[in-house]
Each structure stands twice: as structure tokens, then as C-alpha cells.
């Protein structure tokens, strides 16, 4: 990778984390698309934390359904890196509207695994400012600034390996 790496938050939602072979298929796709998995963990969000994460949607018709769903089971949170991570992850996910996506982008993650507009398999940050904020929400111990200062260049040069058991790339 030649250009500066960009970080984004990726979530695998409860509808897919309940199905191990789907999680593995998504992980395989992440690796095939040359994303670097900087951090990875499974979390179970309590309703209050879910409400906090989705606060910008409060008052919208789907808010309660979304919050209830996201608190219903485990979520896998990942920090992904790539030269254009935000756009690339959002392209790989596909459009939010699953019914439409099944026809217009059937090979995307949502086209393949999404069930409804709420149970649409994945989430991704929509811009750099949100990526930093969302990463801090799920990984409060992680500093994007420190990562860029200390690790980004090494990852960009390919000085890492995949720890398959923990599904995270580690520096050599």
C-alpha cells in the first residue's frame, strides 16, 4: 500500500454474529479486499449504550426497532485500515435498504446476508470524523492519533501478519 492508511469502524451486527459460517465468510471477504484488521472484539451492548451510539436517530420511526435489535445479541466491532477504508468498507457493505440491495448489489455483504433495513448485517462509519468518534466508542483504549504516529507506517509497509485465532493483524 503506497498511500496513507485510513481507519474506519466496521460492525458485524447480531443478525450475522449468530451464524458462524456467515461471520467466517465476511472475515474472508475483509481479507480478500486487503483490509488490515487493526482491532477486533465481540461486545454485547446494553440498551443504554446502544441508545447512546444511535442517538442521532432518536425520534425517527425505526429508532426503537434498531436499538432493540442491536442490544439483542453480540456484535463484532473492528477497526479496519486501508488507503480509502471508509469508502471501500461502505462499498463492500452495500446500500442500507436490503430489499433494493438484493437486486441492485447482490454481491455486497448486505445483499448476501442482510435480512431487513434494520437487520442489514453490517455498519460502517460514514466519514472520517464519525470514524474517530465511533472507534473511540467501541475501543476507548485506542488512540487514532497514536496509531498514526506509531504504527501506520509499519502497517503501510506490510510489516504485519494475521493472527487468525483472534482475527487481527499484528505488527512483526
How would you describe this protein?
- Pfam families: NDK.
- It is built from ten helices and six strands, in the order E-H-H-E-H-H-E-H-H-H-E-H-H-H-E-E.
- The protein has 172 residues and is of the alpha+beta class.
- The protein has one domain (6-90, 122-171): Nucleoside diphosphate kinase-like domain (Alpha-Beta Plaits, 2-Layer Sandwich).
- The strands form two sheets. The protein has a four-stranded antiparallel β-sheet with strand order 2-3-1-4. Strands 5-6 form a two-stranded antiparallel ribbon.
- The mean pLDDT is 96.
Q: Strand order of the main beta sheet, please?
A: 2-3-1-4
Sheet-strand content, in percent, reads: 15-25%
Describe the oligomeric state of these chains in a short phrase.
Answer: single chain
Instruction: Provide the structure class.
Output: alpha+beta
Highest-level CATH class = Alpha Beta
Amino acid at each position: 500500500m503506497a498511500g496513507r492508511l485510513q481507519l474506519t469502524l466496521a460492525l458485524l451486527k447480531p443478525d450475522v454474529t449468530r451464524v458462524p459460517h456467515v461471520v467466517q465468510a465476511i472475515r474472508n471477504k475483509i481479507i480478500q479486499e486487503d483490509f488490515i484488521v487493526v482491532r477486533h472484539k465481540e461486545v454485547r451492548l446494553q440498551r443504554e449504550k446502544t441508545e447512546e451510539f444511535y442517538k442521532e436517530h432518536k425520534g425517527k420511526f425505526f429508532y426503537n426497532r434498531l436499538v432493540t435489535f442491536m442490544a439483542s445479541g453480540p456484535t463484532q466491532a473492528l477497526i479496519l485500515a486501508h488507503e480509502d477504508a471508509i469508502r471501500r468498507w461502505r462499498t463492500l457493505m452495500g446500500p442500507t435498504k436490503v430489499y433494493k440491495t438484493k437486486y441492485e448489489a447482490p454481491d455486497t455483504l448486505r445483499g448476501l446476508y442482510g435480512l431487513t433495513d434494520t437487520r442489514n448485517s453490517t455498519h460502517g462509519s460514514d466519514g472520517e470524523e464519525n470514524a474517530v468518534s465511533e472507534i473511540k466508542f467501541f475501543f476507548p483504549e485506542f488512540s487514532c492519533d497514536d496509531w498514526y504516529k506509531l504504527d501506520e507506517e509499519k502497517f503501510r509497509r506490510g510489516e504485519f501478519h494475521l493472527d487468525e485465532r483472534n482475527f487481527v493483524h499484528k505488527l512483526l
